[in-house]
């Protein structure tokens, strides 16, 4: 059994002149290891995997795994950051083949969303995830995000899937308090908030943590939030979360990951580059983000 508690960061994929910027990616992994996050997600939605070809996806994952190991080696007391690998698609056989490719790698698990666009019946979803979990040598984290896939993982479906020995957690983006609470009370799946504004409520209900794109900036504060709430320091956790709310709101004011990349670029971590059809954050939002960070805004060249 793996532990998926704590704050996990779904890493962006930095670009430089159109190519993956592996040096910047390594620097980000070191940064988050030093911040004390629980783990990283490679090739999640925030990492723009749909714009990466197969070789680029493999290279991004390899860099993240190597950098996570190197960060641990630099501090003997620190373990290597666990890395979840995102696997997406709507063709079960192709996704099964991809999972089999990932089986030899030292990943913590695979993060899998429902088949997008095709909108299968719940029985098809159970069969899909069951086939993928059967093929995986690693734990499976379900990703329930109906606004992207077009289909929701219903509670009965989730409870059925929870019986599979390799399905161990869920990234919960469905926006249903009833489902979130039911899964926490059931206890078989670790529940990770996938909507960043739901981190506080999920943790207070007994959830395990969060996969939080907004935690790319000031990750230490998100780690402190998790520690405060899991230690029962509710008032402190509330203060931390309320201070983070403006950051979380701005991080999703325009399509993810543009706001996060704009903020990291303003601080010099990455270039402010995305691949089409994704576009950079607007100048208006970038001004708000840099003001939040106490930085001076400089408009990016068109």
TrEMBL record:
A Pfam family hit: DHDPS
EC number: 4.3.3.7
Pathway assigned to this chain's UniProt record: Amino-acid biosynthesis; L-lysine biosynthesis via DAP pathway; (S)-tetrahydrodipicolinate from L-aspartate: step 3/4
Record localization: Cytoplasm
Reactions it catalyzes: L-aspartate 4-semialdehyde + pyruvate = (2S,4S)-4-hydroxy-2,3,4,5-tetrahydrodipicolinate + H2O + H(+)
GO biological process assignments: diaminopimelate biosynthetic process; lysine biosynthetic process via diaminopimelate
Main location: cytoplasm
Statement: the UniProt record of this protein carries the keyword Amino-acid biosynthesis: yes
Top-rank EC class of the record's enzyme: lyase
Active site: 143 (proton donor/acceptor), 171 (schiff-base intermediate with substrate)
InterPro entries attached to this UniProt entry: Aldolase_TIM, DapA, DapA-like, Schiff_base-form_aldolases_AS
Assigned protein family: Belongs to the DapA family.
NCBIfam families (alphabetical): dapA (TIGR00674)
HAMAP family: DapA
Known role: Catalyzes the condensation of (S)-aspartate-beta-semialdehyde [(S)-ASA] and pyruvate to 4-hydroxy-tetrahydrodipicolinate (HTPA).
Name recorded for this polypeptide: 4-hydroxy-tetrahydrodipicolinate synthase
Organism: Paraburkholderia susongensis
């Amino acid at each position: 059994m793996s532990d998926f508690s704590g704050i996990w960061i779904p890493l962006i994929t930095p670009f430089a002149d159109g190519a993956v910027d592996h040096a910047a990616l390594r620097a980000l992994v070191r940064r988050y290891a030093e911040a004390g996050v629980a783990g990283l997600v490679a090739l999640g939605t925030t990492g723009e995997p749909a714009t990466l070809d197969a070789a680029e996806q493999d290279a991004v994952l390899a860099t993240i795994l190597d950098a996570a190991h190197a960060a641990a080696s630099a501090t003997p007391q620190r373990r290597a950051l666990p890395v979840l690998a995102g696997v997406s698609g709507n063709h079960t056989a192709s996704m099964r083949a991809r999972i089999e490719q990932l089986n030899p790698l030292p990943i913590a698990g695979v993060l899998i969303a429902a088949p997008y666009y095709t909108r299968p019946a719940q029985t098809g979803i159970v069969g899909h995830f069951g086939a993928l979990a059967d093929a995986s040598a690693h734990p499976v984290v379900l990703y329930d995000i109906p606004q992207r896939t077009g289909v929701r993982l219903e509670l009965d479906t989730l409870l059925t899937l929870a019986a599979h020995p390799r399905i161990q957690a869920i990234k919960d983006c469905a926006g249903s308090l009833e489902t979130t609470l039911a899964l926490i009370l059931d206890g078989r799946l670790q529940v990770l908030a996938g909507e960043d504004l739901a981190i506080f409520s999920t943790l207070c209900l007994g959830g395990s943590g969060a996969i939080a794109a907004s935690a790319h900036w000031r990750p230490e504060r998100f780690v402190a939030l998790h520690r405060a709430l899991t230690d029962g320091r509710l008032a402190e956790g509330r203060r931390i979360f309320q201070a983070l709310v403006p950051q979380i709101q701005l991080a999703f004011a325009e399509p993810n990951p543009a706001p996060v990349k704009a903020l990291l670029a303003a601080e010099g971590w990455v270039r402010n580059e995305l691949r089409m059809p994704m576009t950079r954050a607007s100048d208006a939002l970038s001004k708000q983000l840099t003001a939040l960070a106490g930085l001076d805004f400089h408009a990016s060249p068109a």
